[in-house]
Write a structure and sequence with these properties.
CATH architecture of the largest domain: 3-Layer(aba) Sandwich
Strand content: 15-25%
Helix content: 25-40%
CATH superfamily of the largest domain: Zn peptidases
Number of helices: 12
Strand order of the largest sheet: 1-2-4-3-5-16-6-15
Order of helices and strands: HHHEEEHEHHEEEEEHHEEEHEEHEHEH
Shape: elongated
CATH topology of the largest domain: Aminopeptidase
Structural class: alpha/beta
Amino acid sequence: MPIVNRIAEFGPDMAAWRQHIHAHPELSLACHDTAAFVVARLKEFGISEIHEGIATSGVVALIDGQGPGPVTGLRADMDALPIAEETGAPYASTVPGAMHACGHDGHTAMLLGAARYLAETRNFSGRVALIFQPAEETIGGGRIMVEEGIMDRFGIEEVYAIHTDPGGDLGVLSTRPGPIMAAVDDFELTLTGRGGHAAHPDSTIDPIPCALAIGQAFQTVPSRNLDPLKSLVVSLTVVQGGSATNVIPETVYMAGTVRSFDPEVRDMAERRIREIVAGQAASYGVSADLDYQRNYPPTVNHAAQTGFAVEVAREVAATVEDDVEPSMGAEDFSYMLEARPGAFLYLGQGEGPSVHHPKFDFNDAAAPFGASFFARLVERRQPLRP
């Protein structure tokens, strides 16, 4: 079975919805206008049970099927990124310094497309919970929605999501059981010595040599402290110190990110970073203020639900990859998969700039594939009872 014919028919509507959202990006939890647009479309589809204001601007809408049955959660993220758009599209962002550079406009349009079809046909038992989530890119709107109790409140038993895959062939669905995206931790470090004239370093405590030593030592964490068959990234991404050639600065600021899949590896990386900072600071006689923040956990697909998702994907896509390489990127859908079994999939949208790039744009031709997958997943998981 290819993409659902009815969904293909309103492909132009999905494109129009997506382009409207693209032109009006909102950041973090403040997705109020996007949520209002979503709610207006859901009401047009005849969906009456709509819950707003979850995680500030999130929405959960319920569609009743025919008769009792399970409840499946389908999630889309709504927030944009603080990037100045350079696509030149006629529907480009109207908000300076903000754009949909990660495809969340497309994710929302796909879920709206599936919602319209499911509300029209109701060819399933039980209920569908449509989850429109803010703040994936920042503080974890998925975490907040879970903490606010959406899984228990709406009886969600399994949960699924799709993310666009720029560079992947159009319409290809790909996933894997187990870890598919990494945990993300961030650190900020301020080294404080004693500044002074660069011609008299003996009267100062220079934090720059300490910063250099710490930066080099961080690279030994994955290369010398980890089984080489396991995965870990330690990236030092910010080093700021000094303002003149003849001045030794008082402080150096450093920051970076740590990515991992395995909880034991995650623990080891944090421990070694703390040990390196403390040891080097003592060695160079500077003080160190380290703020190490654990953020999104790894996105881990459940085996049974991933296998089922692959079966459904093969009904709507000519090509399905069931063992895609894991990514060191991170996703707050991880919190939903910690709360309930489910699966996270990628949807190819063809060649073009990658996500988080000022020239990225979602390919509207991909939306019918994603919407068809969501719709068929519900119909397959919750068939009508004789």
